[in-house]
Design goal:
With 276 residues, the protein is α/β, with parallel strands linked by helices. The chain is built from seven helices and 15 strands. A six-stranded mixed β-sheet has the order 6-5-4-3-1-15. Strands 7-8-9-10-13-14 form a six-stranded mixed β-sheet, covered by helices on one side. Strand 5 and strand 6 form a beta hairpin. The longest helix is centred in the C-terminal third of the chain and has 15 residues. The protein is globular, with a radius of gyration of 19 Å. One of its GO terms (molecular function) is hydrolase activity.
């Protein structure tokens, strides 16, 4: 299986329309890959909080249209990163609904096969955490003849229980678009490897380059195999990271080292004991 992670740079001097056209062109250049991945909130920048509402679009808006066409032209499965989605309000009123950080996944024929609303919002009562709603559904996508993808986004990477849920839903490969800051880059690499090892799955984590609202981005998109070995890692700038890997290694790893079978579920914490 061949995957290409497009670590696009977000430049505040570039319009969203221009970056959308540029991203679509980069996707088309990956013809021959099986799966192409874009980062989180690449239309606006993950830390450009003031732009979320202004640049929000419906699920089937301009980014949907551009990415569906690009996936078709390239003949690839496309995880188109995430967009600031404006959902319809109750009663179907356009332009008044809640905002979500929503990932879009397209088939090689340009069909939208999955949309994932980010569950864990970053900000600690600021930024994304208060401006966007939280998703409440785990999402997996079967790529016939290739692998089953579990979808997560950026800050989700810090919450292992989400990935356990994806494994239980059949995930063999995690695809994680992100807008991860440079100042916590060591966490990015460490957590990507941890999620791969503990779940015996591939991790394809695609970050952004450039600067979002003054926040330098980590870049360093990474592909990790089920044993935690880094198969490929990007640098800090804009680039396309392409790697070939064997999806069957997931089943082999889980059979050779069947740690997942030893999971103990439903353990309840004891009541605290008080000594008189």
């Amino acid at each position: 299986m061949r995957a290409s992670l497009i670590q696009i740079a977000v430049d505040e001097g570039e319009s969203v329309d221009s970056r959308r056209r540029r991203a679509a062109a980069l996707v088309r250049q990956q013809a021959g890959a099986d799966l192409v991945v874009l980062p989180e909130l690449w239309t606006t920048g993950a830390f450009a909080h003031d732009e979320f509402a202004r640049q929000a679009e419906p699920l089937e808006g301009p980014t949907y249209e551009a990415m569906a066409k690009a996936a078709t032209d390239a003949g690839v499965w496309l995880h188109a990163g995430s967009i600031p989605e404006r959902a319809e309000a109750e009663g179907g009123t356009a332009g008044e609904g809640a905002l979500y950080n929503t990932s879009l996944v397209f088939s090689p024929s340009g069909d939208l096969v999955a949309a994932y609303r980010k569950i864990h919002r970053f900000g600690f009562d600021r930024g994304e955490a208060v401006l966007m709603g939280a998703g409440d559904e785990l999402v997996t996508v079967r790529l016939p003849g290739l692998t089953t993808v579990g979808v997560a986004t950026c800050y989700d990477l810090r919450f292992p229980e989400l990935f356990r849920g994806l494994v239980d839903a059949g995930a063999e490969t995690f695809v994680i678009p992100a807008g991860w800051p440079e100042r916590r880059r060591t966490h990015w690499t460490l957590l990507a490897q941890a999620r791969a090892v503990e779940n015996q799955a591939y991790v394809l984590a695609c970050g952004t380059a450039g600067t979002h609202a003054g926040v330098a981005q980590a870049g360093h998109s990474i592909v990790v195999d089920p044993w935690g070995t880094v198969l490929a890692e990007a640098g800090a700038g804009e680039e396309v990271l392409t790697v070939e890997f064997e999806p069957g290694k997931v089943a082999q790893t889980r059979e050779q080292f069947p740690a997942l079978k030893d999971r103990v579920l439903g353990v309840v914490a004891p009541e605290p004991r008080h000594r008189s």
